[in-house]
Amino acid sequence: YGGYGVDANGDGIADPFDIEDAIFSAAHYLSKSGAADGEIEKAVFHYNHSDKYVEDVLWFFNEFETQRLESE
Length: 72
Known about the structure:
Elements: H1 19-32, H2 40-47, H3 51-71
Helix pairs in contact: 1-2
């Protein structure tokens, strides 16, 4: 995991094939890549060096936020 692995389920192993560990590890990586400082686009690009991927992730993020705000 390159130092970003997280044992989210407490079994003693940061396993990239365990969904809990993988989610928390990805969040840890994104946080260290700039997301914690508000640089979401930069962090996502670090995760996957594809402008199209970044565009897609941000589109889904915005859709989720819109749905969440409408349901409040």
